[in-house]
Amino acid sequence: MPDPAYVHAAFSSIAARYVTANHLLSMGADILWRARAIEKIAEWKPRRVLDIATGTGDLALAIQRAFPEVDVMGTDFCRPMLDVAVKRGLSNVLEADAMNLPLPDASFDVATVAFGLRNMADYEAALREFRRILKPGGHLLVLDFSMPAGLFAGPYRLYLHHVLPKLAGLVTGNSAAYDYLGDSIEAFPRDAAFLALLEKTGYTIPTQLPLLSGIASIYTAQT
Question: What is the pLDDT of residues 166-184, one digit of tens each?
Answer without folding.
Answer: 776 676 666 666 667 778 8
